[in-house]
Design a protein that fits this description.
This protein has about 250 residues and is α+β, with helices and mostly antiparallel strands. The chain is built from 4 helices and 9 strands.
Length: about 250
């Protein structure tokens, strides 16, 4: 029998050919899957259009120059001048008053006499009362003008007589004494107040209250200032007809 020679062996495959073939296979797979992945990302991306791609940037416009009305300038200058004048006079007044140190006039009662207290009926009162008022100007550089001086006599909060003094001027550090005569004639008093007055007369101690209201004008040569003063005096007298002043307490303030 004839024997055939064996077929030649196949050529050996090298590793390089295997690697190339694997890389080609991987690249081919990636090239096939890459469009699909990119398509999925594009499908998930938000569907909007950026404003920079559609609208042009806004143009900045310079504001047009407008001239100020002359009347506005005139009003501003007037306001400035008025403010400066006001500040000047305020500072000058403060300096003058701090240098002068003005003080309020004082009121006091150095002496008083209760001449009579009697009743025509349980509710109608009659009385005779005199006092000596001492009004002093304690300032060293200021003259004081009293334009009005009114006094009211009270017992237990009820007014029983009034008196006034004519206006006068006081020089610096000057004292003036004025006599005031209070006469009460048929003054109506409630029964409880009348009983209280009778008890005080019997106990030889009668309490009166005197309230004075003054309108004062202060002159410094350049500036003039007017204001009101209020004096409150509580006095105790012995019983009439020889009623004399026992105690007093006077306060004067604005």
């Amino acid at each position: 029998m004839l024997t055939l020679p064996p077929p030649p062996p196949p050529p050996p495959l090298t590793r390089i050919s295997k690697q190339v073939s694997c890389d080609q296979i991987v690249l081919s797979k990636d090239s096939k899957q890459q469009p699909i992945k990119q398509h999925s990302q594009e499908s998930n991306a938000p569907n909007y259009i950026t404003p920079n791609s559609t609208r042009p940037p806004p143009r900045l416009r310079q504001p047009s120059f407008q001239r100020t009305n002359p009347f506005t300038w005139f009003a501003a200058v007037l306001c400035l001048i008025f403010s400066l004048v006001l500040i000047f006079f305020g500072v000058a007044t403060l300096i003058i008053f701090l240098g002068i140190k003005p003080r309020n006039p004082t009121f006091d009662i150095p002496n008083a006499n209760l001449n009579a207290v009697y009743f025509d009926s349980p509710r109608y009162f009659n009385g005779d009362f005199t006092l000596l008022a001492n009004i002093t100007n304690p300032n060293r550089r200021i003259d004081v003008r009293f334009e009005s001086l009114d006094f009211d006599l009270f017992f237990s909060g009820r007014i029983i007589s009034t008196q006034s003094i004519q206006p006068f001027t006081q020089r610096r550090r000057e004292t003036r004494l004025e006599s005031l005569h209070f006469i009460s004639s048929l003054v109506f008093l409630p029964s409880d107040i009348g009983v209280s007055l009778e008890k005080q007369v019997q106990s030889n101690r009668v309490s009166y209250n005197i309230r004075g209201t003054f309108k004062v004008r202060v002159s410094t040569g350049v500036f003039h200032l007017s204001y009101s003063l209020h004096s409150r005096c509580q006095i105790e007298m012995t019983a009439p007809p020889t009623g004399v002043l026992v105690a007093r307490n006077c306060i004067t303030k604005r």
